[in-house]
Amino acid sequence: VQLQASGGGLVQAGGSLRLSCAASGRTLSTYRVGWFRQPPGKEREFVATVSRSGSATEYVNSVKGRFTISRDNAENTVYLQMDNLKPEDTAIYYCAVTTASYFVARAALYNYWGQGTQVTVSS
Q1: How many CB atoms within 10 Å of residue 2?
Q2: DSSP 83
Q3: Apex 49 CA angle, 63 and 70, nearest 5
Q4: What is the pLDDT of residues 70-118, one digit of tens each?
């Protein structure tokens, strides 16, 4: 499966962005999908994940209540709605898929990755 992340950009603190992760080559509904991010000079970190059906989601504590992950299996796309953005959200955001049927936050357990999209939040 090939993943294409898009929707990043420059936004002021308090603003919103919606990231998209479009899949090709295989039906996205066969995978759990996650979003990760890598801030400048830091390790890649888990942000959110959604189950195959979209009924179950998990978030890192720092984005709970501000970010929403969702998916449209008919469109083969997963979204990350990011509201009330903060400067500390600045990072390259990656989407990835895993064949695991349970919640996973470890990047090593994700099988395929998109190329990343830059999100910059100014104060």
Answers
A1: 11
A2: -
A3: 85
A4: 999 999 999 999 999 999 999 999 999 999 888 889 999 999 999 999 9
